[in-house]
Amino acid sequence: MSIKFYTYLLLSISIWLTVANAKDEQLAKTYQLQVNGLTRQYQLYVPNSLNKTHSAALVLAFHGGGGDGQKMAKLTKFNSLAAQEGFIVAYPDGYDHQWNDGREVDSFETYQKRVDDVLFMTKMIAAIHQIHSIDSTRIFATGISNGGIFCHYLAGHLSERIAAIAPVVANMAVPFHKQFNPIRPVSVLIIQGDKDKLIPINGGEVARGNRGEVISMDATIQKWLEANGCSSEVTRGTLPDREPDDGCQVEWTTYQNCQPGIELKVFLIKGGGHTWPGGPQYRSKFVIGNVCRDFNATEMIWEFFKTHPRQN
């Protein structure tokens, strides 16, 4: 057969896969819940391939401040990966596009109204379980910025349900860090850029405005070291610099001797900004910095999650 035929065949397959994935992603449905008198909403993606009687992992994906569940789905493209790997993804909407993440900022409506996002997640997980069987040992949470800060907050309050978290460009909130006391260890993957202008790696004011504060990445790590019983011994390495022109290099650190089955791992992106690695440059580099192209955060997070179920 001619080279033209093979080229046509490959192009046809590529187009078909693109259309199939697009149709599959459109199957995400919108659901609502009443939580303390407030109507809360979330997008839920359940791959067609899943057998409803077979328990599946559930990934909770939290948007950043000002965002929503649909934007988080577009940013991360978890739906395509979920279709391949056979897990469920929920993209909840924060109240007034904001998560009550423990910063206790008077100007945030979520704090003014004492919005209980932990209760929202508890009810949402129960509601999803009515739709599809969920593996209770494989409930995970990831998020970017405000959504990542909320991951720390959620795991601190719901460690008996959340097996692992993967906060992206997000340190732990002030003053929540003072009350942080999870009752069970939780595996943690931290992804942080050292040139993040909005969530400072060394702690301090968020977005240089009246948006509260976070502790430093190192202080956040220390909180999880203590909670997970890890030692200060580490293994270090670097990822291959697959895209030399992206202005980033990735250093990883794994902390040793944690509780059985628990892992604490950090990806420090040298030159990385307030971005989702492998995702789009959703705003200018001047505002959010570089997007690292050396790895895909969505894929890396799922690889971490699927090997870290909750320990009984």
Report on the structure:
This protein has a domain at 102-306: Alpha/Beta hydrolase fold, catalytic domain (Rossmann fold, 3-Layer(aba) Sandwich), CATH 3.40.50. A hairpin with a 2-residue loop joins strand 1 (29-35) and strand 2 (38-45). It has helices at 3-25, 69-76, 78-85, 109-112, 117-131, 146-157, 176-179, 217-227, 285-288, 297-306; strands at 29-35, 38-45, 56-62, 88-92, 134-144, 164-168, 173-174, 187-193, 204-205, 213-214, 234-238, 249-255, 264-270. It is built from ten helices and 13 strands. The strands form two sheets. It has a ten-stranded mixed beta sheet, with helices on both faces. The protein is an alpha/beta fold.
Blueprint (SSEs and pairs):
Layout: H1 3-25, E1 29-35, E2 38-45, E3 56-62, H2 69-76, H3 78-85, E4 88-92, H4 109-112, H5 117-131, E5 134-144, H6 146-157, E6 164-168, E7 173-174, H7 176-179, E8 187-193, E9 204-205, E10 213-214, H8 217-227, E11 234-238, E12 249-255, E13 264-270, H9 285-288, H10 297-306
